[in-house]
Specification:
10 helices, 8 strands, 6-stranded parallel sheet, 253 residues, alpha/beta, two-stranded antiparallel sheet
């Protein structure tokens, strides 16, 4: 697997490959959720009552700083609180209704699919490592045509842990059967993606796509680029591999 310097490339999703804007405090989103629940037989008189019940259903238990709960059981509990025997499928549907109603922008950055295809065409494995809810992310991957683009997918709600914990990165390395020095993380969040990867011994490339997730450059990144500069990313990978190949060649003389 070590023919390439980076045979495994780990990707963040939101802000790295996908340009998104959500507002989970939007009254319209909570109204849409309340309507979806009503159609399923669970009636909430106001958005405020619904918010309160959801908060109770999703009350956090102390399981560490980077614990990531799965929200699907909380959506399921919204039915049970109204004495309705809702199914998990119904819970997924109302969760997706809320997600869609709270999302005002969802699109791929230009060239995202081409980047993944190029990396795979070079014999690399591309792996998604995302801080997200599976009940939101899998439908969005399908909607964006990314559901079959990754060799593996790690979503924090499934793993029970989120970036920047080194544990989620270790999960990815173990599943890919690769040592940290042969993996590269690509992300837009300096704390979660770059710091977390560095702590796990993984090189990371920083894409500055959002001022809310970091500055123009990231100190612990092996390379920083402005915006979703996928060509810059590819150039870095190829240059790093050429340098590694040259160093190996020198050592064999």
């Amino acid at each position: 697997m070590t023919a390439n310097r980076y045979p495994v490339v780990l990707f963040d999703l939101y802000g790295t490959l996908v340009d998104i804007h959500t507002d989970e405090q939007s009254e319209d989103a909570w109204t849409a959720l309340r309507a979806a629940l009503y159609r399923g037989g669970a009636e909430y008189p106001t958005n405020e009552r619904l918010r309160e019940q959801f908060a109770r259903a999703n009350a956090r238990r102390d399981r560490g700083d980077w614990f990531e709960p799965d929200l699907l059981p909380a959506y399921h509990a919204l039915f049970r609180a109204c004495w309705v025997d809702g199914t998990l499928d119904q819970a997924r549907k109302v969760a997706w209704t809320f997600r869609r109603a709270s999302t005002s922008k969802l699109r791929l950055f230009p060239g995202a699919k081409e980047l993944l295809r190029t990396l795979k065409g070079e014999g690399r494995r591309v792996v998604l490592v995302s801080n997200a809810q599976a009940s939101y992310t899998w439908p969005e991957l399908k909607l964006l045509g990314l559901d079959d683009m990754f060799d593996d997918v790690l979503i924090s709600s499934d793993e029970g842990i989120r970036k920047p914990s080194v544990e989620i990165f270790r999960h990815a390395l173990i599943r890919e059967e690769v040592e940290p020095q042969y993996a590269l993380m690509v992300g837009n969040d300096e704390a979660s993606d770059i710091f977390g990867a560095a702590q796990a011994g993984i090189d990371a490339v920083y894409l500055h796509t959002d001022d809310n997730t970091g500055g123009e450059t990231a100190d612990q990144a092996v390379a920083s680029f402005e915006g979703a500069d996928y060509q810059g990313l590819l150039d870095y990978i190829h240059k790093a591999e050429a340098e590694a190949s040259g160093a190996n060649g020198m050592g064999q003389r």
